[in-house]
Amino acid sequence: MALTSPRPLAPLSQFTAAVRGWWRAFGYMSQHRLRAFHLAGPAAILAITIAGLGLTGWLTHTIQEGLDSGLRTLGLDLDTLTASPDAWWTDTLLWGASRLDWALEWGVALLVLWLKVKVTKYLLLTLMAPFMSALAGRVREVETGTSLPFTLSQLLRDLLRGLRTAASLLAAELTLTLALSLLGLLLTVFAAPLAVLLSPILITLSWLVGAYFYGAAIFDAVHEQSGLDWRTSIRQGWRDRFSLVGIGTVFSLLIAVPFIGVFLAAFLGPMPCTVAAARLTFTPTP
After folding, report:
1. Quick one: pLDDT band at residue 45, thresholds 50, 70, 90?
2. Which residues of 18-55 are buried (b: 16+ CB within 10 A; e: fewer)?
3. What is the pLDDT at residue 22?
4. pLDDT at site 83
5. What is the per-residue pLDDT across 114-127, written as a single tens digit (0 to 9) for each?
6. Domain definitions of the chain by residue range
7. For residues 259 and 249, is the Cβ–Cβ distance under 8 A?
8. Is the dihedral of CA 229, 231, 232, 237 positive or negative?
9. Contact 46/102 with Cβ under 8 angstroms?
10. What values do phi and psi take at 3, rounded to 5?
11. Shortest CA distance to 241 belongs to which of 258, 259, 274, 218?
12. Terminal-residue alpha carbon distance, the chain
């Protein structure tokens, strides 16, 4: 079945329609007896928690070891400097190396936290991909009266497709986000006043990148129900990018809540967002 294109809307209208669709999805799921799909969120979080035991320690140790090795190669580690002959520049280098070691320690901790948030988001999407696809199929059946039969092979294909899509989107998001971060760093070093002026724009762009790619993962589950392969799904997503950003903004706000963001995102994000995306796709005015 060819993809049913929604009625063209202005960018702001696409964005707000997506956000409203998420809010209305809870009532829609209750009305059409789809609330059982909410259980997929807790199940995915449990699986991620079990699989992630020890991940933080391993990742921190690996990155720190790599940085320490680089410092030793340059002769800037604390042990090498402490053993060096006493000289005024040795004391200066030792002071600088101690500050650098402290900065790297905190930098690694922040980097690991950032990577965990990004990876957890896409792990969540990968594990929930078959359920998101099944839910999109149920919404399609409600809205259009057509459905696809469930098979075990289809379930496995959904999981593999979710893994492939999530890996591609994660790589693209990390690349763009790191490029924006590098640009911000270069501006800070070589053009500090300009960096101050542009920092709100760079932060906003980084936020929009994350929101867009989350929306792309959600819409991919819906596009699968329309018979689109994952590459065509990504191209179709770019054409509907303001809807994708609207859906992704909801998830980004949920996962940004301190301490409980991942749990909120799992419970309130993928399934209602899938309903919103499916209704935006299969009906003109969800």
Report:
1. confident
2. bbebbeebeebbeeeebeebbebbeebbeebeeeeeee
3. 95
4. 47
5. 666 667 777 787 78
6. 18-282
7. no
8. positive
9. no
10. -70, 130
11. 218
12. 20
Cα distances (Å, whole numbers) of residue 183 to 11, 119, 166: 27, 23, 25
Encoded amino acid at 13, one letter: S
| The residue to which tokens 């909120």 are assigned | 264
Residue with tokens 């991942």: 262
Measuring CA to CA, which residue among 278, 269, 271 is closest to residue 251?
Answer: 269
Residues in the chain, total: 286
Contact 257, 264 (CB under 8 A): yes
* Closest to 217 in 3D by CA, of 155, 282, 172, 262: 172
Its pTM stands at: 0.73
Q: How many CA atoms lie within 13 A of 7 on its CB side?
A: 6
pLDDT in the model for residue 233:
87
